[in-house]
Amino acid sequence: MLIPFLALTRKDLKLFFSDRRALLMSVAAPIAIASFFGYIFGGGAGSTETSRIPVMAVDQDGSKISREIASGLTADKSVEVKAASLEQAREAVRKGKATVAFVIPKDFGADAGRAFFNSAARKPEIGVLYDPSHGAEMSMVQGILTGHVMEAVSKEMFGGQTGRDTVRDTLAQLDQFGMPAEQKKSLRELLQGIEGLNAAQDASKGSAQDAPRVGLTLPYQVRSEAVTSGTGVRYNGYAHSFGGMGIQFILFVGIEVGVGLLMQRQMGVWRRLRAAPLSKGVLLGSRATSAAMTSMFVLMVIFGFARVVFGVRIQGSMAGFLGVCAAFSLMTAAWGLLIAALGKTPEATRGLSIVTTLLMVMLGGAWVPTFVFPLWLQKMTVVIPTRWAMDGLDATTWRGLGFSAAALPIALLSGCALVFGALAVMRFRWEVDG
Amino acid sequence: MLEVNALRKSYGDIVAVDGVSLKAGKGETIGLLGPNGAGKTTTVSMIAGLLRPDSGEVLVDGRSLQGDTDPTKRNIGLVPQDIGLYGEISARENLHLFGALYGMDGPHRRRAIDAALDLVGLAERGKDKVNEFSGGMMRRLNLAAALLHDPQLLLLDEPTVGVDPQSRNAIFDNLETLKKRGKTLLYTTHYMEEAERLCDRMVIIDHGKVIADDTLQGLHRLLPVANILIVELEDSKKDLLRSEEVQALPGVQSVEMRGGTLSIGIRDLAADSPGVLQWLVEHGHPFQHFVSERASLETVFLTLTGRSLRD
Question: Which chain B residues are Cβ-neighbours of A7 within 8 angstroms?
Fold first, then answer.
């Protein structure tokens, strides 16, 4: 029984390696796509600068405050600001050349100053035009804009000429404000204090215009740290993309196994194999073994490339990594057999298998990590084998976790391989057609 | 060596094989003849153990096949109708694989491969990929792959389909060699001339049923005429001939006139045809030329079923 099993396995491997073009494609295609995905998802060991969001600024006010807002935004590293007229800004957003445009209306500075001290005063509006396909960027730009508006307005209010005028006018009109007497008293003291501060600054610096002034700023700084396999170890986006593309193309190998078996059924070679004293287990088992070996080979080549070219390391358990790769290769081989068992014609089966595979790949987080999915979808994907494989590969590569983190994916994938394999052997149409 | 008893196989309402029985002794070559769709391949598939019959039994060397791994399968060599080879690997690699499927290993397998390649005349091409072979060479290798494990019974399912006459002759030579070595051959074909050349006995099958099982001579006895004399008359005189007059001549069994061609069924070609030809000349029916033909299995099939084998 061993001689035929080994001969059949050797034959499959020989056929796989004899087709140089197909062999090259089965490793070159995932490498090319994984390199691209890795690059756009912050690969390059975290050193790649993220692209700045294109923003158009329409300043219809021309006040000191509006100019200050625009210059603050221009200095921000997250956005790339260009001044424009309202028409130009709207056109740029419509054409997708700008993600967001903000419009500072006439008298914004004066109105914002008044509203700064008096909540009852009319609040000026900043118009925001945005590309609806970039909703997330719009929220981000709004946050950045809020910070710069607060800084510019408060800076001018605490020492600028507009602020001095506003404080003086507010003090003069304070008795007419419809607020409780206690609050009115407190506001008067605050405004008088600001006037006193301004006078003191004038006296010490000679001129209020020359004094270095600052507005309200965020009272905290953010110190962020990417939690990877260890302190100071940067996240390498290529680790995830190479895992994802490896998994996708390995599943394609599975499709080829299934469709190949269906095609073989239609050829004379199937009759010859069936005429030999071979059991179903030997015939299908040898095919699964060779498919698992070629899958493992493809995964190793892909990760080898990622290691040499992009510095992807197995930061966690090597045994866990190899275990996940081996278990997924076995599962893929069994998946291929199941395709052959359930499929009718090679042509119809190929189409259906590709759709199913792409769904598994997508939902398993091989293209983009599952955390970007809605919560309900994230919960749903825990039953998908590709998700287990991705979790296992992420755990053992860039997360740097130990074997225990890979143990569950390995167990689940192996179990899945057993179930698929058993179903395939049970459902496989063993007799020849006619 | 082979005994098939009342084999039956149906697919839904369609009965592909309906009670087929046949026997083949050791060293005997049996032709399984019939048009496309007659049930030949299904019968062969059941004999080889590829299909389970609905009823009936197959005995190879007195034993029926029990399951896929039955050692009795080692007594059977199958030459499938479609080429059963992997094109991307060499002829020798193919044979190594098929030898291994029968548990052959080491020097034993190498010797068998050398012998098989030698028999089919491909010893020099063993290292070439099968994809580079001509159709005829592939057919010969297809035969070689079935011989590696030295089976006593060889099932040949239309092994010469689509090959040139030269390769066909080469395959016939190979089969005659095997026959001389005492192998039992079951040769499936719808080419009567192939069966006539190779087979000791013919089993004619149509619509899944055996309609005749006899030697070539026995089948010829079923024919109304054994020989046909075909005479091409001169155009100017053809309308003057009355077929009843020819029919009345000694030894003439049948007469058929088509255009200027006269087909005369004759009992004894050597004894009776000179008289017929002389009568034609003497009675003002000159002819341009004539040929004689022996009634073929094609005629037998036509006689038995009313339709041509190649329908």
Answer: 96-97, 100-101
- How confident is the model over A242-292, as pLDDT tens digits? 999 999 999 988 898 888 888 888 788 889 999 999 998 899 999 999 999
Q: What is the CB-side half-sphere exposure of residue B263 using CA atoms within 13 A?
A: 11
Structural domains of chain A ordered from first start:
8-45+234-427 (no CATH), 53-205 (3.40.1710)
Going by pLDDT thresholds of 50, 70 and 90, the confidence category of residue B307 is low
Contact B247, B241 (CB under 8 A): no
Nearest C-alpha neighbor of B102 from the set B70, B61, B80: B70
Residue labelled with tokens 């609050």: A183
What pLDDT shows up at residue A42?
Answer: 67
pLDDT at A121 over 80: no
Burial B48-85 (b: 16+ CB within 10 A, else e): bbbbebeebebbbeeeebeebebebbbbbbbbbbbbbb
User: How far apart are the C-alpha atoms of B279 and B273, rounded to whole Å?
Assistant: 10
CA distance B55 to B206: 19
Instruction: Establish if A83 touches chain B: CB-CB under 8 angstroms.
Output: no
Residue-wise pLDDT for A22-51, tens only, equals 888 888 988 998 898 888 776 654 444 557
User: Percent of chain B at pLDDT above 90?
Assistant: 39
Q: Which domains does chain B have, with CATH numbers?
A: 2-221 (3.40.50.300), 227-294 (3.30.70.100)
ipTM above 0.90, yes or no: no
Among B80, B86, B96, the residue with its CB nearest the CB of A15 is B86
The total of other beta-carbon atoms located within 10 Å of residue B277's CB is 16
Interface test with B, best of A269, A273, A278, A290 (most B CBs within 10 A): A269
The model's pTM is 0.73
Residue A173 vs residue A291, higher pLDDT: A291
Cα separations in angstroms, B8 against A275, B5, B55, B209? 19, 9, 5, 9
Scanning B99-118 for CB atoms below 8 A from A yields 100-105
Could you tell me if B33 lies within 8 Å of chain A, comparing CB atoms?
no
∠ Cα A212 A213 A218 (to 5°): 130
Contact B60, B39 (CB under 8 A): no
Count of other CB atoms within 10 angstroms of residue B182: 11
Closest CA to A358 of A249, A433, A241: A249
Contact A271 B89 (CB under 8 A): no
B279 contacts chain A (CB < 8 A): no
